[in-house]
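Researcher: Re-running this chain for the archive, since the previous output was lost when a drive failed. Same request as before.
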Amino acid sequence: MSGAKYKRVLLKLSGEALEGELSSGIDPSMLERTCRQIVEITALGTQVGIVVGGGNLFRGVSTSAKDMDRATADYMGMLATVMNGLAIADQLRRLGAKARVMSSLHIPQVAELFIREKAIAALNAGEVVIFTAGTGNPYFSTDTAAALRAAEIKADIMFKGTKVDGIYDSDPVKNPAAKRFATITYKEILEKNLKVMDLTAVSLCMDSKMPISVFNMKEDGAIKDVLCGKDKGTTVTV
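Model: Regenerated structure tokens:
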């Protein structure tokens, strides 16, 4: 696989990763840049599943949703992830990749319903599979959905693309002296109360012994670098 360290990965993308320099929505240049990185690693023979958030379009716990019923707001957030998933699939196809969108909600005119066996078959056939609509249930984050799908498809690792280059002991934006961890365990994350993912997602990854690589998605070639084992970001292990 030409230097690729992992055969199958689950890439977790935040909705904000598609914003680029915009305050909301999808930045076409950022979308293309992200998808080119994905195509780049599929060319190495790596199978790629993606879970994408919807915070660039709608967030269930945002100020705009503060007076809404929580379940209603969360379902709206799930639909936002479907919109992002469709945009990613469209861009991947325009770049020559095969892609399909699966949804945890039943919306057959837009995306096929998630079925684990079909997802694995598609991955084995070289398709990029984009998992949308979270877990299909309110009160669960897309981080939890990513941890769940990573375990279900038996990914070798979960990649979490963020705005910073790994996990720090405090917010590096607010604290210039913040220390970045090269590696850290799930137990340490819980003990230090680090805001990497919500507790449900952390527990799922810990139970399934799923390693995570947290890195800066804005760096060119970041996904390929992490895939090939270069020292980037932070690796979370059991």
